[in-house]
Structure prediction request, 153 residues.
Amino acid sequence: MRRAFLNRAALAVSALVPVAAWGAAAASSPGAGSAGRIRVVYHLADGTEQATRALASIRNHLRGDPEVQIAVVAIGDGIRLLLKDEVDASGRRFDQQVSALASKGVEFRICENTLTAHGVPLSRVVSEAKAVPAGVVELARLQAREGYVYIRP
Prediction:
């Protein structure tokens, strides 16, 4: 009986070692860049209302943490944020707001698959946006390989 208990205890402790090691590594990496900066990706897929919320959140985020590294990935109807001459419900142009945030280091990425599906030429995309082949792949890559924290406003 005592031997069975000790074997279970040893098994439990050995099972915890990899988890503890992983936990320590994970605690230092998600959302943290090489200089310890927090990295965040904002996912936009729902059109102008979400884009308006996202822009406000990003501005607030930068005020609260000026060192944060922010990327925005737009897919589906979220691409409207990154198209020239698109406006929010108040008539404010998105391209001017995007330009102001880009000047503060925010990176913008737009899905080429969505552009193709909606028949939108690259010439309509604001100059601050980088086209990526697939927005969902970019979202996954940023999270899994670069440690970005995911936010969907």
User: Anything to note?
Assistant: The chain has two domains: 1-30, 31-151. The CA atoms of residues 110 and 131 lie 5 Å apart. Residues 1-29 have pLDDT under 50 and may be disordered.
